Amino acid sequence: MSERIKKTFESGKKLLSIYFTAGYPELNDTRRVIRELEDSGADMIEIGLPFSDPLADGPTIQESSTQSLQGGMHTELLFQQLEGIREEVEIPLLIMGYFNPVLQYGVEDFCRRCQELGIDGLILPDLPLAEYQLHYEELFKKYGLTNVFLITPQTSEERIRQIDEASDGFIYMVSSASTTGVQQGFGEGKQAYFDRIASMKLRNPTIVGFGIGDSDSFRQATRQANGAIIGSAFIRMLTADGIPGIKNFIKGIIDN
Amino acid sequence: MSYHANARGYYGRFGGAYIPEMLYPNVEELRQNYLQIMQEESFQKEFNDLLSDYVGRPTPLYFAERFSKQYNTKIYLKREDLCHTGAHKVNNTIGQILMAKKLGKNRIIAETGAGQHGVATATVCALMGIECVVYMGAVDIERQAPNVARMKMLGAKVVPAMSGSKTLKDATNEAIRDWINNPTDTHYIIGSVVGPHPYPDMVARFQSVISKEVEIQLQEKEGRDHPDYVVACVGGGSNAAGIYYQYLDRPEVGIIAVEAAGKGVKSGHSAATSALGREGIIHGSKTLLMQTDDGQITEPYSISAGLDYPGVGPMHAHLFDSGRGEFISITDRQAMQAGLMLSQLEGIIPAIETSHALAIFEDRKFKPDDVIVINLSGRGDKDLNTYIDYFKL
């Protein structure tokens, strides 16, 4: 697993991870968004590789992906945009996307490029556990990439144990059965789910995603989990305020 | 080599289940139960009773004498257009609604392109008194108005898919999103042999009734249970899977798959996946897929809303890849002409999807004593507006 991810979790603080779509709002903003996020206090970044048919995402992320692709984003260009990023940014960087663009790039080539650039891990929601273990686990390990799996409130205890066993970084806890950006805030049902997962004493730390958009939901989500991910709400802010809005947005989450 | 799905849902290198974890429990529940439920006596009885008394099966196997004479060979039409609701789609929706009931689901979602699957789903939901939501591309809602009206009369809610090309692919994305957001009470009735395992295998099994009937009917008419060729149009490929099913592992039967070339395979307005596609992942399955070099899914085009899909089912990808199937692509123009010809020679107005399969004879020659069975997958009523516009009727 990536040392950077390991150290970040060992810090013990409640981590704020931000998802954004590469090439959004403008094609060449990717690097500036990453730098600004680190400067503003984000602990980890998920760089979204846009896909034409993001079926697990809601309208906000789909719209940003469409705009990024129309602007000319593609896999090789993203890698070019990330050249030398490790001279400027220290926090863990992961690439999150759908499996087909990775498959077309060539899974091994994709992994090699990630390693060269200092990418720490991949989150590919439609690459399920069984296919990963059968075909790709060795490759990911060879190139030092952490593969992050998702669990949801519907995931059985047995399967959570399997995923925990197969994970070597952290587990992405989807807060509810939903596509991204659908709901805001957490009721009692969510807390029961968070409690249940916490009581399982997993080997890997957990990060909560989906439905987090402000300091309240961040606090609730991280009461027991090790961190939380903000995606759609961050993209909505970027759409409205652009890169200058990042500092205030992050401060609004972590300083309150 | 077998051309059926293996235990992991693979046809050769195609198939599988590439789904986000949010869908895993739904798909896994289905995977663990579908074969067992389908084999239960009570399920079989209810399924077969509904197919005969409600759908009107067996559908005739009709020797198209004048059409055959035109091309100097023996052409039989498997009349799926005579099924209740006007197409083969209902074989599968009857099966899946019974499956959904066995799994304790009380809400149904579906995607539709031409509207035939949407109508077939709305129909079985009305029959069973179950809530029904159908996703349909906004463009398809425009061009298939009669089917939209039918679905609404049957009590279904029709939700326009506004993303992407606003056609079948996008309707499928929206249906999958609905399923992610409603994981426990909802069953997703996929209309073709696409999607994550076990859908391609399950849908193919429900549609296999078509070739099972052909075996019996040909025995009566030709004294043998198999034709020399089975022919069907392929969008996702459910009618094709149905007519091929019993013959997949019988090499003496030629398998011909007909895809929509649209305005021409190289025109940039086509849905001919076998010619234009590469291995990729769409809607949870590894298959042949029309895409950019970068793995973004390409917008397909066909005059027929039902063939307007950028992939094919994994069974068909494997038939192409292995050479077991012969793939032919037919343009809009060729299909429309063939549809008109069948109407005038046989008094049967076919769906434009089916017209693609009927159009192969101008280029693909057969021997006079070859026995060819074409799956006449649907009737053309829903396409009348397209026929009217095209021929200025």
TrEMBL record, chain A:
Its EC number is 4.2.1.20. CDD domains: Tryptophan_synthase_alpha. One of its GO terms (molecular function) is tryptophan synthase activity. Pathway: Amino-acid biosynthesis; L-tryptophan biosynthesis; L-tryptophan from chorismate: step 5/5. The keyword Amino-acid biosynthesis applies. Keywords: Amino-acid biosynthesis, Aromatic amino acid biosynthesis, Lyase, Tryptophan biosynthesis. InterPro entries: Aldolase_TIM, RibuloseP-bd_barrel, Trp_synthase_alpha_AS, Trp_synthase_suA. PROSITE patterns: TRP_SYNTHASE_ALPHA (PS00167). GO terms for cellular component: cytosol. The keyword Phosphoprotein does not apply. Transmembrane segments: none annotated. The active site is at E46, D57. It catalyses: (1S,2R)-1-C-(indol-3-yl)glycerol 3-phosphate + L-serine = D-glyceraldehyde 3-phosphate + L-tryptophan + H2O. NCBIfam families: trpA. The alpha subunit is responsible for the aldol cleavage of indoleglycerol phosphate to indole and glyceraldehyde 3-phosphate. Tetramer of two alpha and two beta chains. Belongs to the TrpA family. This is Tryptophan synthase alpha chain. The lineage of its organism: Bacteria, Pseudomonadati, Bacteroidota, Flavobacteriia, Flavobacteriales.
From TrEMBL, chain B:
Pathway: Amino-acid biosynthesis; L-tryptophan biosynthesis; L-tryptophan from chorismate: step 5/5. GO terms for cellular component: cytoplasm. InterPro entries: Trp_synth_b_CS (IPR006653), Trp_synth_beta (IPR006654), Trp_synth_beta/beta-like (IPR023026), TrpB-like_PALP (IPR001926), TrpB-like_PALP_sf (IPR036052). Keywords: Amino-acid biosynthesis, Aromatic amino acid biosynthesis, Lyase, Pyridoxal phosphate, Tryptophan biosynthesis. The modification N6-(pyridoxal phosphate)lysine is found at K89. It catalyses: (1S,2R)-1-C-(indol-3-yl)glycerol 3-phosphate + L-serine = D-glyceraldehyde 3-phosphate + L-tryptophan + H2O. Residues 56-378 form the Tryptophan synthase beta chain-like PALP domain. Signal peptide: none annotated. GO terms for molecular function: tryptophan synthase activity. Tetramer of two alpha and two beta chains. Belongs to the TrpB family. This is Tryptophan synthase beta chain. The gene is trpB.
